[in-house]
Amino acid sequence: MELELTYSCNYACNYCYNPLNREFRSELNSDTWCNVIDEAIELGVEHLSFTGGEPLLKADKLFKCLEHLRAKDQRIATRLVTNGSLISDELTKRLKQLGLDIVQYSLHFDRINRALSRLGALDVDRTISEYIEKVNTLKGHGLYVVGVVVLSSNYLNFVSKAIDEVLKRSEIDLMWVEQVFLAGHAMKNSGMIPSQERIARIISELKEIKEHYPSRLLIREHAYIQGVVPLTRGTPKEAVVTPVGDVYRFHSTIGRPEHFCGNVTRQGLKGAWLTLIRAYSRGV
């Protein structure tokens, strides 16, 4: 289950899957998120991901959620999804103390692309070195680190080099290469989606790198996804709670009324979960 703690973000990635037409209602406070976590425990949820936006912009809220969770449950696996810009030694130490298990840290070049337009220079090596330094900070405190790279046309020419350098020079547990997910901001920025020929060429390069790091490089080769993936019959295995408490099946359904399962401030997570179960039972 993904808990989106905030819409706020200090980056503006053109491939972000977060919704464009979100409602700017008041975001849930820490106490409400703790109530959501209590219900998630009762429902038997096995993992919780804290996302955004950029969740570290709301570090106090994140800390309270983790502290509350670990006071009641040591079983649930926890993951932080971050752009990494606010990672520091002190913050990493605190996250580990609060029982965080996994950090999913995106390797971003968008900031450099903006600098390129202003300065006429692209310092790829510096970005890779900064990323590696922060990965090793996370690893130094015993966290499991998953790096994520989205294959955007903005930086496709040097993504293979970046991944090879990170795997070679850091202790990262896994590098995950993902294609653009056609939802949210990505839907209006289709120009940054590479052609299938370019994707195939990069994937071929990455497979050569994978031969040297077979257990540390995961390449998602699926085609771009547009629309909603039909549910298989059964029970819910995931859900997303937005910053304002709305519950949806997963990110590609956010904002679609037909896939709205409820709001945690009105029905509670359990009530929304029952709606989700009905959707799965119908396989729609």
TrEMBL record:
SUPFAM superfamilies: Radical SAM enzymes. GO terms for molecular function: catalytic activity; iron-sulfur cluster binding; metal ion binding. Residues 1-220 form the Radical SAM core domain. CDD domains: Radical_SAM (cd01335). InterPro entries: Aldolase_TIM, Radical_SAM_PqqE_MftC-like, rSAM, rSAM_sf. Keywords: Iron, Iron-sulfur, Metal-binding, S-adenosyl-L-methionine. It holds the Pfam family Radical_SAM. This is Radical SAM core domain-containing protein.
